[in-house]
């Protein structure tokens, strides 16, 4: 049994594709009608519910490695005018010795071989990236880049910062992730839909300033909601446990929430949460939270806020697997610092003092419910529950009986009529 996963715009062709696949292979095809999270990720959970032994993923993909099922990607072939793209590249890079790395959207990968044949004789220092589905075997060699399902080898002595980036594809999350990750490289792009090439004018520093502002918000937060944005990317359970441990040692309370695709209406139900962290693939992690009631950050930004050993180096990480043990960007948590020796910090947003040191992981547990204890239930709840503490701080907590506190009075007749014109209100004459 094989699961066929289509994005929303391709679901109209799902029935015909499934019928032809069954006739050609003899295997039973199961169409996944909708994905729990982003359509660029493989929905392994829905495939396992159908008892599938493999997944065929159609359409654009983030190429994040999966955990269990074998996956075959069918990107599709969007039309690309190779001649016009070559001309746009020559206009953007008139110097023939320019060092350029060519990236592309997956739907244009079929035409990269022809584009390479056109440009390589003229540009000896050009590098074309290759698509890699899953983790490539073996360790990376010096100068090799493996990110976002792309793989290429940089041979310049100065490294990748000596190169410019040329992206073939429309503006979107993929290009934004590339520009934030390789923010030291100048970017240009060619849009196959419009047939125009341009130097990317997106102010990356301004975008980074916005993300660093969110890091400061995360330092001020007392309650953090961990949003599960994927159930198929390898390592998501490990990073969830890492974030819980990090928040616990930083003195912050955390809730793990699985709400599917996050939107402002869903997250507005959790008023006691100060900030959310989204665990998703590299493309969907950069969520624009300007319309949300609370900000949404990435795991890397949360680690910048809570891990004193993690320092800002100018490199931005959107793949949460880079934070896990064994990765090149992993940073161990420093030992705990006693509260008396901790150096306090001042919030750049509120101006209040805050603690930035890590505590020892808690070892003692609360007494069981059968144990006798004399305590104030309200204060006990507020001490162990951020939701109860938030409710206690509100001036209005819902309908309360207040027995014995309300004076007794006789019932009186109220207003009659409808809101547009009560009986005791005078009518205006035209």
TrEMBL record:
<dbReference type="GO" id="GO:0017183">
    <property type="term" value="P:protein histidyl modification to diphthamide"/>
</dbReference>
<keyword id="KW-0408">Iron</keyword>
<dbReference type="InterPro" id="IPR016435">
    <property type="entry name" value="DPH1/DPH2"/>
</dbReference>
<dbReference type="InterPro" id="IPR042265">
    <property type="entry name" value="DPH1/DPH2_3"/>
</dbReference>
<protein>
    <recommendedName>
        <fullName>2-(3-amino-3-carboxypropyl)histidine synthase subunit 2</fullName>
    </recommendedName>
</protein>
<comment type="similarity">
    <text>Belongs to the DPH1/DPH2 family. DPH2 subfamily.</text>
</comment>
<dbReference type="GO" id="GO:0046872">
    <property type="term" value="F:metal ion binding"/>
</dbReference>
<comment type="function">
    <text>Required for the first step of diphthamide biosynthesis, a post-translational modification of histidine which occurs in elongation factor 2. DPH1 and DPH2 transfer a 3-amino-3-carboxypropyl (ACP) group from S-adenosyl-L-methionine (SAM) to a histidine residue, the reaction is assisted by a reduction system comprising DPH3 and a NADH-dependent reductase. Facilitates the reduction of the catalytic iron-sulfur cluster found in the DPH1 subunit.</text>
</comment>
<dbReference type="GO" id="GO:0051536">
    <property type="term" value="F:iron-sulfur cluster binding"/>
</dbReference>
<keyword id="KW-0479">Metal-binding</keyword>
<keyword id="KW-0411">Iron-sulfur</keyword>
<dbReference type="InterPro" id="IPR010014">
    <property type="entry name" value="DHP2"/>
</dbReference>
<dbReference type="GO" id="GO:0090560">
    <property type="term" value="F:2-(3-amino-3-carboxypropyl)histidine synthase activity"/>
</dbReference>
<dbReference type="Pfam" id="PF01866">
    <property type="entry name" value="Diphthamide_syn"/>
</dbReference>
<comment type="pathway">
    <text>Protein modification; peptidyl-diphthamide biosynthesis.</text>
</comment>
<dbReference type="InterPro" id="IPR042263">
    <property type="entry name" value="DPH1/DPH2_1"/>
</dbReference>
């Amino acid at each position: 049994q094989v699961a066929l996963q289509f994005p929303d715009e391709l679901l109209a062709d799902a029935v015909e594709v499934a019928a032809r696949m069954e006739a050609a292979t003899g295997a039973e095809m199961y169409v996944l009608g909708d994905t729990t999270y982003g359509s660029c990720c493989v929905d392994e959970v829905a495939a396992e519910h159908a008892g599938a032994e493999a997944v065929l993923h159609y359409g654009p993909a983030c190429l994040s490695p999966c955990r269990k099922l074998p996956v075959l990607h069918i990107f599709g072939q969007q039309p690309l005018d190779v001649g016009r793209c070559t001309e746009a590249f020559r206009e953007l890079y008139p110097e023939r010795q320019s060092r350029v790395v060519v990236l592309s959207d997956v739907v244009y990968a079929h035409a990269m071989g022809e584009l390479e044949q056109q440009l390589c004789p003229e540009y000896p220092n050009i590098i074309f990236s290759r698509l890699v589905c899953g983790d490539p075997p073996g360790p990376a060699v010096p100068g090799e880049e493996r990110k976002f399902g792309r793989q290429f080898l940089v041979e310049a002595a100065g490294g990748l910062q000596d190169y410019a980036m040329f992206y073939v594809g429309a503006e979107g999350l993929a290009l934004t992730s590339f520009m934030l990750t390789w923010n030291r490289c100048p970017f240009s792009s060619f849009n196959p839909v419009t047939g125009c090439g341009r130097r990317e004018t997106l102010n990356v520093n301004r975008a980074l300033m916005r993300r660093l502002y969110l890091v400061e918000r995360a330092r001020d937060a007392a309650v953090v909601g961990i949003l599960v944005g994927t159930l198929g990317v390898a390592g998501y359970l490990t990073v969830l446990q890492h974030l819980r441990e990090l928040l616990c040692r930083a003195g912050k309370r955390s809730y793990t929430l699985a709400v599917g695709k996050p939107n402002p209406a869903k997250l507005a139900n959790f008023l006691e949460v100060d900030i959310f962290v989204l665990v998703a693939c590299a493309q969907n992690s950069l969520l624009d939270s300007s319309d949300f009631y609370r900000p949404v950050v990435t795991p890397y930004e949360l680690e910048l806020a809570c891990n004193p050993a993690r320092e800002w180096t100018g490199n931005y990480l959107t793949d949460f697997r880079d934070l896990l043990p064994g990765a090149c960007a992993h940073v161990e948590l420093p030992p705990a610092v006693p509260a008396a020796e901790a150096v306090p910090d001042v919030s750049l947003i509120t101006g209040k003092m805050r603690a930035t040191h890590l505590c020892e992981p808690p070892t003692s547990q609360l007494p069981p419910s059968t144990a006798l204890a004399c305590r104030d239930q309200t204060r006990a709840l507020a001490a162990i529950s951020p939701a109860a503490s938030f409710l206690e701080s509100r001036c209005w907590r819902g309908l309360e009986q207040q027995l014995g506190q309300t004076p007794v009075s006789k019932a009186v007749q109220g207003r009659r009529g409808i809101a547009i014109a009560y009986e005791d209100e005078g009518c205006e004459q035209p």
